[in-house]
Every structure is written in C-alpha cells, then in structure tokens.
Amino acid sequence: MTPFDYRPAAPDAARGRVLGTNPVITSREVNGRRLAGSEGMPDAHYTDPRLVTLYDRENTWGADDDRFRELVGARGPCRVVDLGCGTGRLTLALAADGHGVTGVDPAAASLDAARGKPGADQVTWVHGEAADLATDSADVVLMSSHVAQVFTDDDEWMQTLGHLARALVPGGRLFFDSRDPDARAWERWGSTGRPALLETAQGPVRTWTEVDDVVGSRVSFTAHSVFPDGSRSLSRSTLVFRSEAELRADLVRAGLVVDAVDGDWRGEPVGASAGQLVVQAHR
Predict the structure, then answer these.
(1) pTM of the predicted model, to two decimals?
(2) By the 8 A CB rule, do 15 and 25 touch?
(3) Residues 111 and 146 reside in one and the same domain
(4) 176 and 162, same structural domain?
(5) Which structural domain, as residue segments, surrounds residue 82?
(6) Beta bridge partners of residue 200, listed in sequence order
C-alpha cells in the first residue's frame, strides 16, 4: 500500500478564464507558497521526471476517479478547477466529458507529463496554486487523490479553503477526499516488508515506503525507488490527517456549507472499511 495516490473539446461557454491578472497559462515560480509538504515546494515524487513517470504507473484509474467524475457530471457541462491536478488523470477525463477544465499544480514536471497526454490541448494547465484563481470563476473545484492532506500548515490550509470559496460562484461545489485518521492508514504503508516491482521500458523499478515519524495528526514518510541502472531516489513527504469534525469546522470557517461527508466512494457512512472522508460542500 502506498501513500502516493493524491491520485471531446469543452464547449466554448464552459471554457473561460479562471485566473486573476496572471496569463491563462503560466510557467512562473510559486514564489514560496506551498501546495505540497512543509518545505515550501512539492516533494520529489512530483518534481523528478523519473518519479513522475512512476506515479502514473502506480496510480491508475480507480473508484475515486469514477465518483468525482459522477459528482461533476451531475451539474452538466461546467467550469471545473482541478487543484493539485498532477499528471492529469482525472483532469483529462473531465475535459473529455465536455467540461471546461483548468488543471492547477505547482509541480512543473507533473504538468509537463500532463501536457504530453492525448486530449491535453482541451485543458488549461496552470503552474500555480489556489491564490491565483479569479473570484467567481468556477462552478466546481476538485481536490482529488488526497491533495487536501498536503496542506500541513493549518493557516495555509484555511487560506486555501478561503481562496477556493472565493473562486466558486454562488452555489458552486467543492469536492475533495482525505484519509480518515481513525483508519490509521499509515500503519499499512510498506507493511509487506518487501519492495514492489514496477515494470518500465528500462526494466523493473523497486519501490517501497517507510514511515519516519508520526507527530499528532502529521505523518512523515520516505518513498524509495531503485532504478534498473542501480541509481536511487528518495522522496520525503509529510501528510496531515484531519478528522471529519475538523474538516467540517474548517469548511464552515471558510464560508462554505457542508453537504455530505461519506466514508467511501459508494456513499457509505464514515467509518466504513475504506477509511476515506469524501467531502461535498458548496458556497
């Protein structure tokens, strides 16, 4: 089990500018603001091109993608912001469904991978973060693949929710997932005691995860990768595990209304075996 699953053209009316004064497509630096980790920039799993390639092999389409696609689709063609879009797995599918989609991420290597995929020309790709979004510019905002857990600083988390609330039109929807801390998922990361083998064009890559520290609701871990040529890569990360009560309170503080918090992708109650918190809210 791994922690790394932060896992036709859109009609003209649904496409549209979602940024403020910045260009629609920007390659500027993030200027010290954080989306992932506590060091101020995304960790190596999202910036090292070799690890970005592995990410796509480790994290394929799943039930979470189906659920988010269903939730967005219920609104009909609309303007969607995918914050922390990574390599674009869900982003591209939503664009193919006819939505006007903007994928936002601070990791240039992940965006480069996304831009190289079929259908990428139907998405507006933005090297940036929530602060860059224009007011009243999105009908739906997504944070899939547990992106919400990378905001380890509570003030930054609240600022991000505030930016997302501002970016949504009145009645606009916010969907995201987080792991339920009561399920203690980190205790199963790397629990098999042996590396996983990922087949690549260059040969098999050995990967495994080690939990380094657990301090309160924050879990730090290191992902190891050994490539066919014998070279190694380490990706160190920290995630925060907020409870359902904490998430509900934070959303209300940000001016959002909580519609539902489910425990898995089928709508089961919190505490189901999946160990998820699947959140639906609106402005």
Answers:
(1) 0.85
(2) no
(3) yes
(4) yes
(5) 44-180+243-282
(6) 203
- State the Cα angle at 100 between 96 and 102, rounded to 5°: 100
Per the structure, the count of domains in the chain is 2
On the CB side of 61, how many CA atoms lie within 13 Å of its CA? 10
Query: Are 212 and 93 contained in the same domain?
Result: no
User: Strand pairing partners for 211?
Assistant: 221
- Do both 142 and 265 map to the same domain? yes
Q: Are residues 71 and 144 in the same domain?
A: yes
Average pLDDT over the chain, rounded to an integer: 85
- Of 44, 46, 51, nearest to 85 by C-alpha is 46
* Sheet containing 232-240: order of strands: 196-200, 203-215, 218-226, 232-240
Query: What integer pLDDT is reported at residue 54 of this predicted model?
Result: 85
Cα dihedral value 263, 266, 267, 268, nearest 10: -50
Burial track 2-19 (b if 16+ CB lie within 10 A, e otherwise)? bbbbbbeebeeebbeebb
